[in-house]
Amino acid sequence: MHTVLVYTIFVKNITLSADESLIERARVVAQSESRTLNAAFREWLEQYTARAGGGAAFDALMRRMGDVKPGRHFTRDEMNER
Which of 27, 33, 40, 47 registers the highest number of CB atoms within 10 A of its CB? Predict the structure, then answer.
């Protein structure tokens, strides 16, 4: 007996505008990488949004560190305490 699992991912279509020759060159590049232009764009979109996520993660860290009071200068002895 075989078990077959099917995962469904819902995607949304979008329409983009670009110069026709640019689109054609992008298709050629994607084809040379054995993938579709659609797959290349999805990869780019993931990388693009990951960059923005880094800023959100930094902001969340700074909020969590709200009780930390910077600015105090430690003496040499304090810095070398173990």
Answer: 40
Considering the domain boundaries, does residue 59 fall inside one?
yes
Range of the domain at 38: 30-65
CA neighbours closer than 13 Å in the CB half-sphere of residue 32: 6
Q: Is the dihedral of CA 50, 59, 12, 4 positive or negative?
A: positive
- pLDDT tens-place values along the chain, 82 residues long: 778 877 777 888 889 899 999 999 999 999 999 999 999 999 998 888 877 766 777 777 778 877 777 777 888 888 888 7
Global pTM exceeds 0.70: no
38 inside domain: yes
Structural domain total, the chain: 1
